[in-house]
Amino acid sequence: MSILLAADFDAAEWAAWLPALQQALPGETLCRGADRPDGDGVDIAIVANPPVGALQGLPQLKLVQSLWAGVDKLLRDPTLPTGVPLARMVDPAMNAAMAETALWAALALQRGFFDYARQQRAGVWRQHGQRRAGETQVAVLGLGQMGQAVAARLAQQGFVVSGWSSRSGPVDAVLGDADIVISLLPLTPTTTGFFDRERFAQMRRGASFVNLARGAQVVEADLLSALDDGQLAHAVLDVFATEPLPAEHPFWQHPKVTVLPHVAAQTDPRSAAQVVAANIRALRSGKPLQHLVDRTRGY
Ligand code: GLV
To answer: 136 and 237 share a domain?
Structure first.
């Protein structure tokens, strides 16, 4: 039986992933989408943003292992085989990378470094007051693997951290207390369009918003209005409704927006291949699979 790799990787990504996976899976046969054997010969699929329909016609499939932490796009594929266990990527190295990105954003917001970057572009020398981490409240929305890693890292740095998940009850109090709101929510029907005019209005005036989760959680026009009318001071965005962010999108040039090209926590082939291999060994030896997605919950 072979393992099918279905991904939207470019040549450099394939060059990193293929040897890492092959080395982590000695004795297994890996094949890529283009040169896959007939469907009967495949019992595992390793996927990263596969094209819609990539997992059709695989009657022996016993595991779909995602290289991405968020599986929202995969779950939207109507041809995704039902009844086959689906595992998402959970990798401590990825959690650590996410915590670094959140820490950078929170520090830059706390100390006004995005304001100073804006001032530099205008040739302005002006000093502002200096706020302490302990005077800065950060709300982390989404308390899965990454949200917990982020909350712990920020607390360690001295920020006043509160956490919220969809099971915690109303979000308005958490939003209203925060100087910085960070989303690490999974994208589900409930969180689609979650950050809209109403939610931005619930935030403290002059708060900042950091989205490290999924772009579709944000009503982008409402975010732009909240920035333009001063309700929000700054937004750090790693994810967008449309990726790559279209060249004409107002976020690119907006003075109160920092754009990252979906790099807050990239899957690291070196460690992720080990995570994948552990799950495949579990499948082969009849042991319980790890990090399974609850399809009705959506993550
Ligand atoms: C990245 O966004 C991921 O889901 O792994």
So the answer is: yes
